Amino acid sequence: MTAEEKYVAAAYLVVFGFVLVYVVIMAAKVARLQREVGELAELARRRRDRDEPATADPERQEMRVG
Amino acid sequence: MSTWSRNNPLTALAAATTLLLGVSIVLVFFYAPVDQDGLNQKIFYFHVPIAITSYACFGWGALKAFLHLWKRPPGADLESYVAIHQGVIFGAMTLVTGSIWAKVRWTHWWVWGDEQLVLFLVLFLFYCAYFMLRFSVEPGPQRANLSAVYALFGVVLIPISFMAIRLASSYVHPTVFTSSGPQMAGSQFFTFCVCLAAMLVLAYFLYRFELAGKRLDADLKALREHLA
Predicted ipTM? Predict the structure, then answer.
């Protein structure tokens, strides 16, 4: 490989390196956001489970069956 | 536009970007002829489109900043910020690929006497300072207004930087596009156009990708505060 070929390869690799690093950073961010969405969904689920008995439909009454 | 690409715009953009970049590489190395300047001329096909994309990103950021100051549409400040961020990334790539090309062509990594190089560096540093300004002010309307005004000032440097090689007294930097058209063969110009399209689509994809992440981040923060 000549020196000129090495410089051309380096120029193209630099561009792909930049894009790769950027995409990796963004992928890490997306992974963090996914984790946060999961945590918030879990928090909302727990809150719903906790609040459900108190917010039950007041018109529904317990009836004796049989 | 197909239903799939309407439902997955980012995935469709990513696929288009990958395809265009792949085609660009094939055209650069297997279609465009090697001219009298030698193999190093191949750097031109990525270096110049990256520089033009950088100008486009700064211009887009300035336009969004102008819209923010004028009509105040929601999200214009964030869009301006993300566009300038893309411009700085592409600007850094321009400087690095340009330096590599300069080393082969002029045997120097940097030539301080070349107006185009110095003006592009000034433009790049100006927009780097944008982030220092933005993150030194508390989030809110004041930060958005200051950032928008700064982004608008920077746009003045774009035509100066672009015209520098045409006005320069030293002709170190080659002038390929003149008033009589592109100074290259048809196959080279076609390759250049495909590379430019690839870079613009890449920048647009990264812009939309980053914007989607930032918006999701803001929504999650609001939701977390609501649930707390």
Answer: 0.83
